[in-house]
Amino acid sequence: MDYQSFVDCIPRPSAILSVDRADRGIRILCANQLFKDVSPTDAVYRDGMYYYEHMPRNPKFEDFFYHTAVLGEAGHVYAEYTTGWIDQMAIPLRSEDPSVGLGLFTFELTESPEIRRFATVSVDVTKFAIRTGLILATTEDFREAMRSVLQGALSICGAYNARLILLDHRDRSYHIYCEAKAELDLKKENQELSYEFIRGWERCIGDKSVLLLTCPEDFDAIEELAPEWLENLRKYDVQSLVLLPLRRRGEIFGYIDFINFDTRTASEVADVAELLTVFLASEISNHELMERLEEISTTDALTGLRNRMAMLRRMDSLGSDCFGVVNLDLNGLKRINDAEGHDAGDRLLIEAAEILKKIFYDPDIYRTGGDEFIVLMPGINRDSFDRKLELFRAAAQKHRDVSFAIGAFWSDGSVGLTAAFQAADDAMYEDKKEYYRCHPEFQR
Question: pTM for this one?
Fold first, then answer.
């Protein structure tokens, strides 16, 4: 067959490639001019054909093309490339030599991802894409939706574990936002992680949209860039890995990883990874922004406690069970502000908040005004409420600079919130009067 005439008729970069069945090495037998224009390999004339010698070794491409030329499976991959995206197609050809396989390789470059090119992915991946879109569009619980998406990806990849890891560069911390595991591997141990350890992954990712480790050569390639990561992977017997960076304005703010997937599904795994990039980066970023805005709207910026708005929302959700209320006022704040300045007053408020946090559960504590704090404890019995109050009074007395006026009320549910708050408020003002009676020099 005149392969050269054949590829010359194809209006995109194309070449006939041969694959050595033994070592999977790939040679370029002939190519059209479009392929030659982007190929750095010089042609050598031998045995009546132009050879372009060995293509650079690339285990993932070799595996992809081996399935076409040797196993007779047509292949398609649309993935990120160094300067854009590359749409690759491979078609098997009949070989007269039993030691080699033949195939047509053709590709097209695009500057940005084009959704229509994803249409050639497998039926399972297409179903996954549709299901992912529906889940994210209709969810009310974003975290559970993400876990469901990861669980769906596991079923395609055959992996035992998938995680969505988010980074907080401001606090230099990370958290596993959600995780999915295969049922047979629920007891498998997770890798040891830290913020600095995860930041090291960026050295291996670079500008790529996905990192696939499927064979020993892939793992060896990251040794120089991240030796501590490779050691960790070997420690936990990780045989294959997909790492998918999530970017916002060019900065990586998180990762999705799949551990020990079925390498026979490498093509589907690559498609799933690319689709997750398209679907999730903006969704997670937007959701994270909304959570941050929600946090800002319900958090006191100075002390980090929850604010009055958060308390009112909490009150709306309380049932008719027993509860306790502690109403607190910081004695002497105005005097400190007038005598030493507002910075000193701020330090006093922060110290007061830290005392409260040592005794009470953080989400139960609210700064509701300049020097006002409220502790709201739903579902607490009378004995536990009294013990908490005693512990707090003892802790507060150990601090010379901080003095609280304290009013408390416990209800078995027969007294409503409004009446309970009023009773605690009245008790607090009586306590404040007593404080100023004993310390007239601090009177406002």
Answer: 0.48
